Amino acid sequence: MGGVGIDDVARLAGVSTATVSRALRGLPEVRESTRARVRRAAAELNYVPSPSAASLASGRTRTIGLLTASFSRWFNRNVVEGAEERLRGAGFDVLLHAFDFAPDGSRAPIDMSTMRQRVDGMIVLGIPLSPEERLTLDNLNVPIVFVGTGPPDHVRVSMDDHDGSRIAIEHLAALGHRRIGQIGAKLPYDAHWSSASERHDGTVAALAALGIDYDDTLEAFGDYTQEGGRAAAAALLDAHPDMTALFAYSDEMAFGALEELRARGIRVPEDVSVVGIDGHELSGLIGLTTVAQDARAQGDAGASLLLEMIAGSNVGRDVRFPTALVDNGSTAPAPAVRAA
Amino acid sequence: MGGVGIDDVARLAGVSTATVSRALRGLPEVRESTRARVRRAAAELNYVPSPSAASLASGRTRTIGLLTASFSRWFNRNVVEGAEERLRGAGFDVLLHAFDFAPDGSRAPIDMSTMRQRVDGMIVLGIPLSPEERLTLDNLNVPIVFVGTGPPDHVRVSMDDHDGSRIAIEHLAALGHRRIGQIGAKLPYDAHWSSASERHDGTVAALAALGIDYDDTLEAFGDYTQEGGRAAAAALLDAHPDMTALFAYSDEMAFGALEELRARGIRVPEDVSVVGIDGHELSGLIGLTTVAQDARAQGDAGASLLLEMIAGSNVGRDVRFPTALVDNGSTAPAPAVRAA
DNA sequence: TTGTACGCGTTATCAG
DNA sequence: CTGATAACGCGTACAA
Description:
homodimer; 340 residues; alpha/beta; Rossmann fold; six-stranded parallel sheet; elongated; transcription (chains A, B); transcription regulation (chains A, B); DNA-binding (chains A, B)
């Protein structure tokens, strides 16, 4: 029951352990009749190969490390789901390494060296990494795919952040909004290649293209949490009573903003319009207009890419997913326009 | 860089590999000065032990398997977070095995034998298992902890389901509601020990204690999804126009019910009151009164229990967490009462 | 197409 | 307290 080894199977099937190994792993050089016999013997004995022994002997682990920030974030949990399904379907296990940000937005340094020898590849999800952290990652000497946020010298899968901002800003501008507050993120180690940075740049570019002056006091940072979004909204509302719209870089931050607006008795969308990013499953019920992305598909794509890299392929550098505006009713013509 | 082994460290420290192993694992029988020397050598060489080799030799993996249904469910993702943090803190890795239900509520059979030799323990999250599935689990020969839903002959951590229903029903009854629809779940393999079953039983008991007749046509099944909750609400509203309240066994199903009510122009709470279970982070913004539980703490507790079992302790059978009503405004006196 | 035999990098036993 | 050495269970050259 506990100790059926490869030699037990070999004995029962009347072949050598080498043949058992080859047959069970589907190597082509085995006669089909032999393979069938081995399979039957293995099934009869309820044999399962020891992954430790296999890894030790082969150097491969058939395990992928998944580094992610908290599942309280819609994006992360959806990517993990998509990636996990694809990886398990391909016969890979998933080693989960999650971590949280402290309330002040900081976080403990992540040491990936514990993953050494444990994984054949890594997926890193949605967080900027410090140079030291990237070093411990690279020292793993396995392929790495970044999803959501990733440095330029690595393979990255994400939505088209720049274009997402353009869509949001153009939507608001078309409704006559000119004083648009932004709720962004300033995470540690953001070296200008995070999604937050790109959404910011896209916003600035979109405003410029529309001839609207960019005012950096119209940006506050919610760091992708609901509470952060609420605090950011509060700060912006205090500083800019004339603001008529809010663009949050995630639905969760937008939800926080909606809470703050409601608490102040400010009507949405009559007084202030709000747009988020994600396409959260509750944006419909809550009534939040959002720039929707398919996070699950990004997880799937990231996993697929990683598997190709492990198989030796030379994949490209970047995969960007499109976004689309979903109007759930939280935007309306700017008050001044309506008045006119 | 790639191939620093225990013997490299041994050579540099001037000791045997056995001593290196003992020193680095913190075994007590090593002189502190020796341990320090070994530690220094290991650090200098950037040595990380091979988990495969360690597992092969010791039989332990320092890895816990986590079996869970989709993270789209609030409960699951919060439990996973709580458990993951505790396990990683204790030096254990987490192997994630997720799966989805098909749209019709069924699911493919889960084969845990792939976890054989891979994990020192298992946490199973929130799903009833078939007898065959439980068998593949038990055949792993490792401690198992169930969180949320678990068979009576295993260690289980969950909220007090029975009492949660009591709280919800008493709250509604105190407001004068008598025709209370329930949105429950009928998952495959539910052998009467699931949270859904217990919430149902608790509801029936609470109604009986209040002298309210139980009517099984007032129960529909949403299977813990938002869409399912919406469909269940629709069916109940069609069949029972006189129904004045809905009690859903999860916030997500309640959210679906709110969607359906809104689509029909039925006001909440003026026409129909709604209560959920969970304390979802968006229940406040959405305005859903709910019986709140601490899912993260349950994940933490489940992990702690499992670690104790792995260490050889004989833990108890059951840990139940309390719940508390959070009034977010979706309940009001029953219309008939108001009219009176 | 199959078998032999060595090696993978630790842990654990037993001496010392 | 420390060292030598035999497992641990498989993958894979190499040979047949």
